[in-house]
Amino acid sequence: MSFNGEEESVSQALTTKSKFRYNSPFVQISLIGLVCFCCPGMYNALSGMGGGGQVDHTAANNANTALFTSFALFGILGGGIYNILGPHLTLFTGCSTYILYAGSFLYYNHHKHQAFAIVAGTLLGIGAGLLWTGQGAIMTSYPPTHRKGTYISLFWIIFNMGGVIGGLIPFVLNFHRSEAASVNDGTYIGFMAFMAAGTLLSLAILPPSKVVRDDGTRCSNIKYSNVSTEVAEILKLFLNWKLLLIVPAAWSSNFLYTYQFNNVNGVLFNLRTRGLNNVFYWGAEMFGSVGIGYIMDFSFQSRRMRGFVGIGVVALFGTAIWSGGLANQLKYSRGEKLQTLDFKDSGRDFAGPFVLYVSFGLLDAMYQSMVYWVIGALADDSEILSRYTGFYKGVQSAGAAVAWQVDAHNVSFMSQLIVIWGLTTISYPLLMILVLLAVKDDNKAEEGTTKEAGPTSAGP
């Protein structure tokens, strides 16, 4: 891919007048947020139903295992692919696979053959690797250095609004089916319509060389990239000590979804209530991202101190919320026959698990926004950050693939909770060490990380 730095010049007055101009980081981050609103946002709503909206979780567990296995590979490769192909082709290809995945469950509603869902899951893993790597590079490299937390929050708000709307779709369409087990066809068709819109919208994203920040600087000085360069740089990621410190955080950050979606929301609540719960789960994500984004950008003058405080705040919230999860988990176990909870009929019994599930959403946004901020603080260049975020998404997806199979093999709910809580707890001190050693307060000290593409640009 050629990022031509010699585009026709635009006057400083025009480029700095408004953050609402098409080539501003604000508009471009908003656009990638809308793309993810339509595609992974709707996927999240579908997954949040537990079992892809089916009474039998087997097909969804196997499809998601295939999905995250291929996602793990293409998440790592995605940074190189993005650097070669650019945002249009990379994002469009990635988004189109979401439509096929939702369609496979529409097919499953009628034929109960899980092969299509598994193949669609594999293809979605490839597409998601491309989409999320591109998204990560855009979200962490387009904003100015001192406002990365704010722009991450902006993305997270728009993206998670997709989960809110996506939760309303099954809630409304299945409202009068309080005893229903699987969602109706209209639910899947609604998801597919949003995903198709997001696929088309991905063509509106500009490459980094065309994006101009409010101070007149461009987001990248990349002149070229090629296959041999990207292969070499991707291999170096596995020896990069900064990224190795992120591994526990990356592994755990999607490992928890299987437990929360299948074994809390999917087990404790009936169908229509699961849709309602997801509205609040993804809504809480929006508030969580705003709160942690403020801390990471505005709490202290020192960027390093902001990182320490942000990680500490997330650690405190995480400990409190997973303690509540433990208390809830002590009340039931796998294989136990439960009376599912309904938001209208279950009274006080509904309140506790509902608040816990919503709190999980709040924590998820805080945790992932914090990790993205740390990654974004390691460099400013789009080429480097596309590889870093690709590595993060690859490890994250490998953890998710394992989690879906752990659940498919009927590992106890309590064991899953303990592993998740343990991994997230281990990640906090490691991220603190990373901030201490790698995040600098002096912007001039970081200039070496924003150089043009070269064979050693992503080295340890």
Structure description:
By secondary structure, the chain is an all-alpha fold. 71% of the residues lie in helices and 0% in strands. Helix 7 runs antiparallel to helix 11. The two termini are 24 Å apart. Residues 1-16 and 444-460 have low confidence and may be disordered.
For the structure shown, list the relevant keywords.
single chain; 460 residues; disordered N terminus; mainly alpha
- Spatial extent as radius of gyration: 21 Å
Main sheet, how many strands, which sense, barrel? none
Q: How many H/I helices?
A: 15
Q: What distance lies between the first and last C-alpha atoms, to the nearest angstrom? A: 24 Å
| Number of E-state strands | 0
Shape: globular
Could you spell the SSE succession in H and E letters? Answer: HHHHHHHHHHHHHHH
Helicity range: over 70%
- Beta-strand portion reads under 5%
The computed structural class is mainly alpha
Mean pLDDT: 85
Low-confidence parts, pLDDT < 50 over ≥5 residues? 1-16, 444-460
Task: Summarize this structure briefly.
By secondary structure, this protein is mainly alpha-helical. It contains 15 helices and no strands. Helix 4 packs antiparallel against helix 14 and helix 12 packs antiparallel against helix 13.
